[in-house]
Amino acid sequence: MPLDTGLLYGEMIGAWILHFAIPFGVSMMVPALFPLVKGFMKLLLFIGICTLFSGILQIGLLAFLQSASCGGVKDYGSILGGAFWAALLFAGMIAIPIFIEPMRLLFSQLLVHHYPLLTPELEQLTASIVATATGRDAATTKSTTKAGLNQHEYDIQTFQEIAFGASYWGAFGGTYGLGIGSFMSSRCLPSA
User: Is residue 146 part of a domain?
Assistant: First the structure.
């Protein structure tokens, strides 16, 4: 039996939506379940959990595709192999916004405003500009506008931006991964 391409296209649309949602859900889950994990380890944990969920989802989608195309699940090895490569592609795609800031901001700035890290020097400069504009003393003037974030706020903002960027890039990674995985898993082996 040939591959049911109509089903494949429908699954690819579903995979896009579900892989868009995975990083959002994991970004809420990681800080809640692992509050002591910070920095690079938090990002590795994020990638690992997202990839695990993607792999499980890919196994289900590819098994359904093989079942529909072959009249039942005939080869679990090809499904696992296809899901492995699909999840690996997904992991690579969600790593893009983690390690390349412009790729993270490409999508996240459409949803939230990016504020810079407010260093002490920048805070002084902002206070000086506000003081000059208002005619007050720079030492006692605090900016009423949001000029930047402290380190803790900036880390939270960065993780939110990573979640938005990973959702965008991961949706495409999960979809392309399903397409690639379907090459492996939709081959119908004769029953033993």
Answer: no
